[in-house]
Each structure stands twice: as C-alpha cells, then as structure tokens.
Specification:
mainly alpha; about 0% strand
Amino acid sequence: MKVRAVFLLCIAVLFALTPLMLPSFDGYDPEDFPVQILRPAVQPAGYAFSIWLLIYAGLILHAGYGLLQRHSDPGWDRPRVALMAAMLLGTTWVAFAEDQPVAATLTILVMLAAALVAVFRTGRSEFWLQMAPVALFAGWVTAAAGAATGVTLGGLGWLPDTTAAVVCILAVLAVAATVQLRLGRVWPYGFGVIWALIGIVVANWSVNATVYWTAAAGIVAMIAVTVLAARH
C-alpha cells in the first residue's frame, strides 16, 4: 500500500506540472481539423480553466496526506490505482492536445472512465482531504470530456458546431446526473460540472443563444440533481 501511496504523490505532482509542457495552450488548434471553427460553442470561457489550480492542489494534498497518515488504510488505498491511471492519462492528453486532437479526445474519454472508477472507490471518512479532491477532479473531467468531444465532432464536420455543443452538453448532463445521484452528498462532483457549464454560458453570452440557454438550463438541472442527491 505504501508503494502505491508514494507513486500516487509523485504522479499528482507530475500531473500538476503538465501545464508547463504547453504554457500557451488555449484549446485545440482549429487548423488540425478539416472544418476550422475558431471558437467552438461548447468550449467554456478561458477563466473557467483556473479551476485546475484548485484541482491540482487538492490532488497533491490528497496524495500527500494519504502517504503520510493513511498509507496503510484500505479505504484510502482502494482508489489509488484508478486515480493514478486518470492522472497519467491526463498527462498524456497534454502531449496529444497540441496537434492530435482526435487522439487527445479519445484519451480524455478513457481518463474520464478512470476518474469515475476512482471517485466511486474513494471513502468518505475524511471528506475534505479524501473524497472532495477526487470528486472535484472527476466532475471537471466529466465536463471537459464532453467539451473535447463536442469540439472534435464539430471540427471533423460530423455535426454542425451548435448541434455538437448541444448534444455534448446533454450527454454530460446525463452522465453527471447519474453519477451525482449515486454519489449522494458528494457535492464537489456536481460543482465541477456546474463550473464548466457556467463557463459555457459566459462564452456564449450574446453569441449563440441556443448553446447559451442549453447550458443555462443544464446549470439549473445540475443544481437540482446535486441538492436532491444530498437530501437522499
């Protein structure tokens, strides 16, 4: 168990350093797609990505505390392998994202699967250091995977930009609502999804009414689901 705890902390630190690989990255390059969409509708406003600072800090705290205080605790050890896989895939995603968006999108979908396995295996006895960081990470990756898929569908010309955005927002909501209801009172997961939806609303303000109102309705729906899950 202690070896896994050590590896988890090392990978969490490595994951937090991945932005240094692409310091100016602000989304997939439109020139890497057959259909060049300068500003995909499903992509949140730039400020929304600042949540990564909180996610990185939370994952490092989770891994560090787990190593120092809970390295032999089965409840802390259970999600480690899946969480390591998710973070390693996140590091790989950065490598693909610069010029291989399709590979990057496939990678983030697998990353999402690993993150969801991790959150379902995470205990709740020490909520803020144990569950909250993993849940926030999984919530944001749920939304990010949807956004990446929407950008890719539009860029490949498989769907019009607005249609791709709406389809992927609805898909994110379906997955997120199902996960949140299973997680119950683990509200940081829902918060991660809601934060992304707010970013989409801001990005489409006075630009794309269809996507704006879809994301706005999604925020209301996700808040309702998160509250309902907490009560039950």
